Fold this protein.
Amino acid sequence: MNTYEYRKLKNTLASGLALACVILALIPLIYILAEVVMKGAPAMSWEFLTRRTTGTGEPGEGIGNAIFGTLLLVFYAALIGLPIGILTGIYVSEYGNNKLGTIVRFFNDVLANFPSIVVGLLAYALVVAYLNVGFSLIAGSVALAIIMIPIVANTTEEALRMVPNSLREGALALGVPRWRTVLKVMLANGRAGIVTGALLAVARVSGETAPLLLTAFYSSYWSLSPTEPIASLPLTIFRNFNSPSEVLLQQAWGAALVLILLVLTLNIGVRLLMKSKAKKSKAVKMKWMTRLSRKA
Amino acid sequence: MDDKIVTQGLNAYFGDVHAIKGIDIHIPSNAITAIIGPSGCGKSTLIRCMNRMHEVMRGARVTGKVLLDGQDIYSSQMDPVLVRTKVGMVFQKPNPFPTMSIYDNVVAGMRLNGERNWRKLDAVVERSLKLAALWDEVKHQLDASGVSISGGQQQRLCIARALAVEPEALLLDEPCSALDPIATAKIEDLLFDLKDKYTIVIVTHNMQQAARVADFTAFMYLGELVEFGVTKKVFENPDKELTEKYITGRFG
Ligand SMILES: Nc1ncnc2c1ncn2[C@@H]1O[C@H](COP(=O)(O)OP(=O)(O)OP(=O)(O)O)[C@@H](O)[C@H]1O
Ligand SMILES: [Mg+2]
């Protein structure tokens, strides 16, 4: 066998092995998805999605308040966590070549690997107990926000580092101040990575259960109040799985399916949004294009 | 003739690396000055010191003076941002902003600094692209991305972008090293046209290019300025043996 054939063989073997591993990793994923869809789909109905939980296992009750609760929790968490996370990432990447930057980076890594139950404890101690708000929407959102921050900060930093240095220098050399360079050039070029990171963080926290147990707790009612306990999908799943009732168990599978769909919709939604935004700026450009080509 | 840029005892460091060693050079106004020398001798570093771009690198330091029209750009009252609008720079590798259209690239300096008047921007786009001899090639695709054109066009786009902020001097770091002879010739013609209005410093590895376009030539070696003078004199009758060796290719 000559060396070329030997190399080709090695190449085939290696890519075959990689493919096998991919399939191996996909099996549990597909299995879980199939299981959730099969067991959750029968629970689906308009009532199931819109009625609140009574917790008794009566037929005809739903998880509407839990869906709404999760949306609210994640919304407030994003409101708190995304700006802090993104700004931290910008600081560390663009201004962090100093002691403070190193320290922030270190704590980010530590926080990113914190068990989420400990974050829950922290939010409990801070919001529920110390600020004396009690189990509440806001306590839950704070816990989720704390989980989001390091994820968002790290992905933002990563995204900004991927932007070629030549672009930063190009902008600076035009007499653009540092902060504007960061805002208009670095962020514009790292946008895809930053949005992906934000999405990742939102998806990650929408399934968090443990910290909510200690903060948002649970409620079988509709609620908007930031200071009242609120229901959430993960906790509904958690509670109902512990019950002997067939109906409640089916509700749990239904809630799991809804949770998965929610994350998926979020993902696709943001992608579409980014696309339509690109189109819009193109329309604006068309205007001056016609202006200039008329002259030309 | 006046000197646009004068360095006095200029030293530049990267951490512990002493890249520029006490250089005194006079860059004449409205002329083209070429800087030549072997790789790593500090040509890029020298010109980056002239518009305060050296210090944006991590661990980079500068000592000494750089006078722009007699004013020290390293004095504490001097705003580096202002210095960079007066002394523009074109880099070795074309670096148009990929998220911006050709139009937006040209006026990036103005728009990023808040200019919104489109009449003004339109005029600047047309004028700068014409100056950079690119207008005819891109006038029908101004909305295309800045990276959708050829490398030579991208480099002229970067020159147009630098000219759009109306600098007084232009520093070019091997602007033609990635270009074919035709694109190179276009840029050389362009530099010729520009020197009436601008002071130009060009770093080049191409000896013929220096001889063709430059009025003055500086030869650097190991972070020091070995020789500076009228191009014809430097090439035909250099004072230093080192310069002659480098120019005739009998080096090392
Ligand atoms: N980022 C850096 N960190 C540390 N040292 C550097 C860095 N950049 C350049 N140097 C050093 O500074 C010296 C001058 O570099 P410079 O880039 O100015 O050379 P040059 O003459 O432009 O070379 P070339 O012709 O290859 O572009 C080199 O000896 C190099 O070792
Ligand atoms: Mg160089």
